[in-house]
Fold:
Amino acid sequence: MQRRNFLQKLVLAASSIGVAAVPYATARLLAPAEASSLSNHLRPPGALNDENEFVKSCIGCGLCGEICPPKCIDFDKRQGGDGVNGPFINPEKKACILCMKCTEICPTDALTEVPREKVKMGIAQIDRAACYPWVDRGVCGACVAVCPLGKNAIGFKFANMYRPYVKEEGCVGCGMCVEICPHPSLPIRIVEPGEGSVTKHTI
Amino acid sequence: MKTDIKVFFLWRHLNKLRWLIMSLVFFMLVFLPFVHVYQTYVASFSYDLLTQSEKQLFDIMEAVTSPFVTDPASQLDAIKGNTWSGNFFGYKISDPLAVAGQMAASISVYWPFFLSGLIPIILTIIFGRFFCGWICPANFLYELNTALSLWLQKMGIRAGKRHFDRRLKYLVLALGLGVSAMTGSVLVSMIYPPAIVGREIYFSIALGGFGAGLVFFVLTLLFDLLVSRRGFCRYVCPGGALYSLLGHFRLFRIKRIVENCNDCAKCNAVCEFGLDPLRDDFGQECNNCAACIAICPTDALTFNLSIKDKENQGPGHLGKKYQQQNSQLPEDKNATT
Structure:
């Protein structure tokens, strides 16, 4: 009889936990799976370096997006699983201007306050087989002109040749160059630091 | 047959104040995304490049905000965010559930964030689950949903009236925090209606598109309408569970004055959270919303400073049951003597 009681209680507990899991399961099922590649899913500036640490800290309040002056921060509009409502920047649509307002307002410091030179969102990489000046199809220099960090981050390899190259130690990966690039296939992209191969080319 | 016990006359009008505050919070949640859109227009100096409707928005927002600020791009940052986490004139205020969820997800306490949740926690300890009734933007929609269900009942469509175990929401809270700790992601925010409402309004206005949360919120509305009145808040909401636990020994309580009560049970009918004011059963889940005080025809409910509810005081002295009991007693005495 006691065993029967115990089993009944066990079944009751298991079923109530099952019922309690229903809302989470529903929300998770509603969340669309979304493949993200780094080149158009940058975390905002100052984000904790480890992606897992960032997801642990972010509560998905959306304050970073709500204060962003160029409105560049978009959100994973999904509720479930890994990274609830996490912010990201797609520099192909709108790039970060490194105003660092989002790091000031973030309540959990998932976006830590750092000087703009110390931000590590990624690093720009130029495809020298497509960039106009590099394939001798004119003079451009838009990425160099727009870079908020100036000549520390991007410059011309030879004087007045208008062939841009990225300086690894200076580039923070804000993506302004990606936004401004006039080439339709965007030969300049943001990649993870250390991942870039084309930036290491030398002539 | 009125008794001499008077209650403070303003308590009856608290319900109106509550609706005012709730509407104001909801209005701010709609207004702030427009403010942000206006700020981006100002910051980019792009008035000439805007479309006609965007220019209209710019003009309206300029007219509304220009009396208060001179530099909209930076000064309008003073009030930002939603009830899940916000910035209010430099003070960061976060939902206690956000604090708990983030603590569970990272299995550590980040003190600056904990301090941002401190004011709501202290207020909850004093006033109980007041957030649910007074501020929560989802509660605003849920109460309108209740009104809708009453309309539907008048038209002959039966609303759901099922009852479940109210302790389920504590299990939902515990499960959410446990799974957050295992997966390392703040999972409670995905089923917490005020957080969903706040962010979905921002998405729809500023980013041009709802997210998956809207579907979940509509499902909860349908659950309330078809299965159980206010079912999500009563039985599921993890935030309500946390507030109930924090407000277990709250100082501000509603008390029934048994001398004034006439057992009409309007308070039980109006209570959104399915409590039992008629039998003095408020418990930790009362959110001090004052709807029962507003509807009481004999002023039998009032606020009280105490950390415990009264025991069941029996039938109200103006009610039939009590008067029958008390009128029979003298008759019995007469019969025996």
Summary: The mean pLDDT of chain A is 83. Helices of chain A lie at 2-30, 51-57, 63-67, 101-105, 142-146, 176-180. Chain A touches chain B through 47 residues (CB under 8 Å). The longest strand of chain A covers residues 123-126.
